[in-house]
Design a protein that fits this description.
InterPro entries: Cadherin, Cadherin-like_dom, Cadherin-like_sf, Cadherin_CS, Cadherin_pro_dom. The protein has four helices and 53 strands. The relative contact order is 0.05. Strands 45, 47, 50, 51, 52 and 53 form a six-stranded mixed β-sheet that branches. Strands 2-9-8-5 form a four-stranded mixed β-sheet, with no helix packed on it. Strands 11-18-17-14 form a four-stranded mixed β-sheet, with no helix packed on it. By secondary structure, it is mainly β.
């Protein structure tokens, strides 16, 4: 029989002769189930009303008002302890729990549902047997059977939950209990009656905090010496359905492409239940409670009750983003434990599903032909081309890309997309000329950034014509060439002709006259004939003028037509000035000092410069004016093309001397500058130069020569 229990389900059934022989004299009535763990072989289906096993509960006082409760509502236990199914059922999980209660006691039994190959392995594990099923290796005097305690028990406490039995009665012997939950944190949960061996719990347990306790029981004599044990006592906390399923991984957002086939997976939602995963207390089932909005169908989606996968259940035609009220759906999803039965606890979460757009609608111009008017010579946006597109504005399936496909050979037009409105902004980028063409016709196409889906194509509405009318404007005359260049020598006579300019009027159909005027002439050197445009000089052109830069003088002129109002054009003239030798060289420095007792009589190094250009500058020629008298006082030596050195030929008395020097450039004809070098002869003591005593003495070369001549005549009167 598939629904029969295993041949042996407990120690008492497994070894009846051995246990009765060993413990018959010591067994006392223990309130509760006489057997707490049962094993049922998993059938293909539990049959309705077919007994599965008998449970024996005894409160040791008559079982007044005995009542049984089963964790799975598909099963029931009669008052006589017989367990059977209320209907045909196949999937019941891994375990059933039966809670029994009377006025005097209550207890919990666990029924494990196992496969055929699990039966003996499970028994062997539970009862710690080795080798074949037989007598344990070592007979112990303490019998500490596992204790099962439901979590969340109600007061009063302490509450008896089991009993430890000792086969040998010894005067003064005491039970002692230790381990986590007794004398280790969390302390004080369990206690044992040291005389009777009754084990009690002092407060309600929480399986989700601690599911199992491993304690040790030992027997001591009056002195505290251990006389038996320790023996392991396992206490397991039986799960109660006290935790609701929780969705912890939110927010839950899924995406599905519009037009997706029926059954397309959108997302997965999974909840967590802190109860025992091996029981129905954590067996979750999922369900969609509410869908918002409810159109085009109130059941757009389905959730797999076991996996939590949300899939589409409508046809691809209904999953059309452009026909929906909104592309966003919100689902209230419920997770219920106990396998989804009505007694299960529930938890809910909201799933947001976004219908993603695909490019299934091409952009279309709002009209086939657009008109634009622009004045010649003007650039900028001239018309905005409008299009419609039913796709999502936040995607490349909506954003438009415009292209001019005909009518723009000179590249005078460009078109760009307005990112806010998606309109095509048609611009003139090269000024148009009315006299060349008064009308332009452009053919423009529009596409999306993203490609269209394969079964959609761009149609005639994705192209449009733009008719552009160019308005005539009175344009200013144009100089040819512009800028104008000419080369002239500086210092040409006043009234000389520099250049005759040429300006034409682009408005060839208007037959207008042109007059000329000076616009900018920084140095005031030029004039222009207003009729024929001849430019002449009114002053000397000077290459060395501050208005000349890099030998070029720049002026501007106006050409004004006779239109109403008149239009003006500007022309620029660059005059390159050639140099002539019109600047004498300059000498530096013009003052020098020397000590009256100086040993180094090299007084000063002179330099020369010239504003003119080569070859009208260096090499320079340095010379002293002619010296008269019995002896020469100084000389000048050329050092290079631009410098020379003045040297004293002897020490002089303290005084001021003026030395006449001439410097000549290399121009043709050359120019000479005659100047004087002022020389101060000073007294020098202790590295200090004192020139104050020389202030009253100003001696020139001529004075020295006159004095020497007078002295010579007195000495030789006969001459």
């Amino acid at each position: 029989n598939q629904n029969s229990t295993m041949e042996v389900e407990s120690p008492f059934c497994l070894f009846p002769q051995v246990l009765l022989f060993a413990f018959t004299e010591d067994l006392e009535c223990i309130p509760g189930f006489q057997q707490k763990i049962f094993y049922i072989e998993q059938p293909s289906e539990f049959t309705e009303d077919q007994p599965l096993l008998n449970l024996v509960f005894d409160d040791c006082q008559g079982n007044s008002k005995l009542n049984f409760e089963v964790s799975n509502p598909d099963f029931k236990v009669e008052r006589d302890g017989s367990l059977f199914a209320l209907r045909n059922v196949s999937d019941v999980g891994r375990a059933l729990f039966v809670h029994a209660r009377t006025e005097r006691a209550e207890d919990m039994a666990e029924i494990l549902i196992v496969g055929a190959d699990e039966k003996r392995t499970a028994l062997k594990e539970i009862f710690k047997l080795e080798g074949n099923f037989g007598i344990p290796r070592q007979k112990r005097a303490i019998l500490a059977t596992p204790i099962l305690i439901p979590e969340n028990q109600r007061p009063p406490f302490p509450r008896s939950v089991g009993k430890v039995i000792r086969s040998e009665r010894t005067e003064g012997a005491k039970f002692r209990l230790s381990g986590k939950g007794v004398d280790e944190d969390p302390k004080g949960i369990f206690r044992i009656n040291e005389i009777s061996g009754d084990v009690s719990v002092t407060r309600a347990l929480d399986r989700e905090a601690i599911a199992n306790y491993e304690l040790e029981v030992e027997v001591t004599d009056l002195s505290g010496k251990i006389v038996d044990g320790p023996v392991r006592l396992d206490i397991s906390v039986i799960d109660q359905n006290d935790n609701r399923p929780m969705f912890k991984e939110g927010p839950y957002v899924g995406h599905v492409m519009e037009g997706s086939p029926t059954g397309t997976t959108v997302m997965r939602m999974t909840a967590f239940d802190a109860d025992d995963a091996n029981t129905d207390n954590a067996l979750l089932r999922y369900n969609i409670l509410k869908q918002t909005p409810t159109k085009p169908s109130p059941n757009m989606f389905y959730i797999d009750p076991e996996k939590g996968d949300i899939v589409t259940v409508v046809s691809p035609v209904l999953l059309d983003r452009e026909t929906m009220e909104t592309p966003k759906y919100e689902l209230v999803v419920e997770a219920k434990d106990m396998g989804g039965l009505d007694v299960g606890l529930t938890g809910t979460a909201t799933a947001t599903i976004l219908i993603d757009d695909k490019n299934d609608h091409p952009p279309e111009f709002t009209k086939r032909e657009f008109q634009a008017t622009v004045k010649e010579g003007v650039t900028g946006v001239i018309v905005n081309l409008t299009v419609g597109d039913r796709d999502d504005p936040a995607t490349g399936a909506w954003r438009a890309v415009y292209t001019i496909i005909n009518g723009n050979p000179g590249q005078s037009f460009e078109i760009h997309t307005n990112p806010q409105t998606n309109e095509g902004m048609l611009s003139v980028v090269k000024p148009l000329d009315y006299e060349i063409s008064a009308f332009h016709t452009l053919l423009i196409k529009v596409e999306n950034e993203d490609p269209l889906i394969p079964d959609i194509a761009y149609g005639p509405s994705s192209t449009a014509t733009v008719q552009i009318t160019v308005e005539d404007v009175n344009e200013g005359p144009v100089f040819h060439p512009n800028p104008m260049t000419v080369t002239k020598q500086e210092n040409i006579p006043v009234g000389s002709v520099v250049l005759t300019v040429n300006a034409t009027d682009p408005d060839t159909l208007q037959h207008q006259t042109i007059r000329y005027s000076v616009f900018k002439d920084p140095a005031g050197w030029l004039e222009i004939n207003p009729t024929n445009g001849t430019i002449g000089t009114t002053a000397v052109l000077d290459r060395e003028s501050p208005y000349v830069h890099n030998n070029i003088y720049t002026a501007q002129f106006l050409a004004i037509d006779s239109g109403n109002p008149p239009a003006t054009g500007t022309g620029t003239l660059h005059i390159t000035l050639e140099d002539v030798n019109d600047n004498i060289p300059s000498l530096y420095p013009t003052l020098a000092k020397v000590c009256d007792d100086a040993k180094d009589l090299r007084v000063v190094v002179l330099g020369a410069s010239d504003k003119d250009l080569h070859p009208n500058t260096d090499p320079f020629k340095f010379e002293l004016s002619k010296q008269s008298g019995p002896e020469k006082l100084w000389r000048i030596n050329k050092l290079n093309n631009t410098h020379a050195q003045v040297i004293l030929l002897q020490n002089l008395q303290k005084a001021h001397y003026n030395i006449p020097i001439s410097v000549t450039d290399s121009g043709k004809p050359p120019l000479t500058n005659n100047t004087e070098l002022k020389l101060q002869v000073c007294s020098c003591k202790k590295s200090k130069m004192d020139c104050s005593a020389t202030d009253a003495l100003h001696i020139s070369m001529t004075l020295i020569l006159l004095s020497l001549g007078s002295l010579f005549c007195k000495s030789f009167p006969e001459l």
